[in-house]
Amino acid sequence: MPRTNPSATRNQVVDDAPIVASVLSKRPLEDAGQEEQNPTHKKSRQAEHPSSPGPSSSHLPEPVNLLPEPCDTYIQLRFQLCRFKGVYRVARLPLSFNFVHLYRYILLLFGWSGMHLHKFEIHSHVELYSRTNRPGEIKTSRSFRVPEKPDYDAPAWEQLDWKMWCREAVKTPIMRVGTRKRSYEDEFLGMNDATPLDMNDPFDRKWALTRIPNKQDSEVTLGDIWTFDVDENLSQGRCHNDELAIKFEYDLGSSWEVHITIDYDKENHYMWRRSRSGNRPELITVKGAVSTKTSDIDGKKKKVSKLLFEADTFERYLKGEVCSVICNTELAVYEKDEPPASVLQLNE
Q1: Three-state DSSP class for 252?
Q2: What average pLDDT does range 60-66 have in this prediction?
Q3: Closest CA to 109 of 263, 250, 223, 222
Q4: Which of 7, 27, 71, 317 is the most buried (most CB within 10 A)?
């Protein structure tokens, strides 16, 4: 079941100033562990290393060099790399973050190059695995986009059709976000958001109820998913905030997934309104790192550069002043013109 404490209020209002980098940098990180030494992976790791700071690919969104607009509401999220129990991040993000910022932030957090296709899916009525089994991973979800239940005396085919839609709702997202504004299904049917619908037509009525919106990444913010007032979140109050989650898939077809879910702090809070607005993400916890080009199961033992915890690192990453890349023993986050020895070894 979702991680909800009945004794906690739904919304928490605090005068919480942004966490300074000096505090974050004192959080312990795991020591470097031994990684599989396999010479066959050397070429693959070199390909994952970006030749220029930040991601660069024809499949990426339009370049973003600035942080989002300042926002007084922050949310704490967990970024869990699926199938790797010890590889995750916890960060506080302003609700003004759109999905272009979110994508670039994920690349920074995991040291990925951005040279692969990706997509986002938002799911509702999410149930997570237990924290001792597969913490932070989505177990099941259920879309609320189903047709209205037919009357008791409706024809049998209508009853069967409704049951079919209910079965399809399991694990079906309630929204897709990516670089394409129209889905392939919409293009095939010649439909889009502006297509006029006749609500007296059974097909149009069902289409309006069940169609999965396909949004462009620059159009959707975290504040469109989670809101301080639960009745105004993406589900319009059909489920609580912690029952909404994001699936991020990177390198399509290779099943590299990051599940993004609400993460409660020790006081059972996950959202804050502050007296001073901000637009910088605040990194709380980082554990492990795994390259998309390896099958390293000991990634949770890799070190992480302390620069990742600095308050202005993401802003400088967007500007191309900071790079992030997976190395043999660490996630290296470094100044563009000062690559560490671990990065130089990748190009030997």
Answers
A1: coil
A2: 57
A3: 250
A4: 317
